[in-house]
Amino acid sequence: SFKGWEPARAMAFADVQQARRPRAPQIIATVLGASFGGSTSSAWLPLHNAGSLHPRQPCARGAASKVGPRRAVEVSVLKEVAEVALAAALAIGAASASRRALRKSPPEARPVLDPGRREMSIEYYSPKRRIIIEVPISNGTLQVTAHNASEQDSAAGASEYDLQEWRALRFFPSTGTTNLVQSITKVSISPGVHELAGGATRLQGRVLPLAYTKSFATVVLATLSALGAPVLPEVASKKKEKLKLLCIGLGGGSVPTFCAETLPHCEVDVVELEAAVVDAAKEGMGFVPSDRLRVIVDDGAAFALQAVKDAAEP
After folding, report:
1. What is the pLDDT of residues 251-299, one digit of tens each?
2. Conformation bin of residue 68: beta by default, left when phi > 0, alpha when psi is -120 to 50
3. How far apart are CA 183 and CA 214, in angstroms?
4. DSSP secondary structure string, 12-66?
């Protein structure tokens, strides 16, 4: 939405977004033509806001030009717009060329890319999906959907014949609507076995597709390390101490599985209030508990308080 922004700025922003399409050179040429004397966009710029980089702020620039103050400011601002649009187009073009070169290079020469990188989101946000699980819970409905994954590289511990796909966990409240995605996981499915059979579908713990799960895991582990907790394996071996984590809320199980898989000295307890969420995570999202990754159905706050009391007792 461009509400509150000057039309020229809205149009310039749209032009930069459109630069992702093949017609980018024509778009950039149009902006450049307007900035160097053309009239393509000049009518969109009112003088009182033309010099501001923020909406509805007064112009901070002087007006000194033979062609008049309004035109001078228009040309100056449009030059800035052209520079931004051109830089964006060049960056997009360089990224496209890099991707083309990457595809042509031999597999052994290709860098290892994050399998949960942002550009993969188009796959699990695609409307093409199939419903794996849909169950009622206390205040709404829980749904797990499956989405095709274009990258089928073998995951750690998986067979080269395993099928890989995305799974999305969504919650639909009993009143109102929401498009909130609770969790995204990438799973490996063993061939020739029903996908909901025990052990057939397994979550890939090293793949964190959502930005907030990446940030959450990073901040928590970095903070614990700063506080002296044995996060790194070498620190744990020196202290002869395990890293024990408590996660309140399971979701799809991506963060606790990430911690258990990437940190071999880590033990994770997960407390989830809804039994249906645990079932959905196990059957649909590929969550697999283990000796170091345990899940308990209970109230998280009550469980944490009791754990503190138990630890304080001699």
Report:
1. 999 999 999 999 999 999 999 999 999 999 999 999 999 999 999 999 9
2. left
3. 12
4. HHHHHHHTTSTTHHHHHHHHHHHHTT--SSGGG--GGGTT-SSTT---------T
Render pLDDT for 33-77 as a digit per residue (tens, 0 to 9): 333 333 333 333 333 333 333 344 443 344 344 445 555 555 555
Secondary structure (3-state) at 131: strand
Residue 296: CB partners within 8 Å, gap ≥ 6? 269, 270, 271, 272, 303
Contact 48, 77 (CB under 8 A): no
Amino acid sitting at position 104: K
- Report the distance separating Cα 123 and Cα 209, nearest Å: 11
- CA 143, 148, 150, 156 torsion-angle sign: positive
Specify the long-range contacts of residues 158-164, CB closer than 8 Å, at least 24 apart. Answer: 158/188, 158/202, 158/204, 159/188, 159/190, 159/191, 161/191, 162/188, 162/189, 162/190, 162/191, 163/188, 163/189, 163/191, 164/188, 164/189, 164/204
**H or E stretch including 123?**
helix 121-124
Tokens representing 146?
């499956």
Q: Please name the residues in contact with 4: beta carbons below 8 A apart, sequence gap of 6 or more.
A: 55, 56
Please name the residue that has the structure tokens 């509150």. Answer: 4
Decide: pTM greater than 0.70.
Answer: no
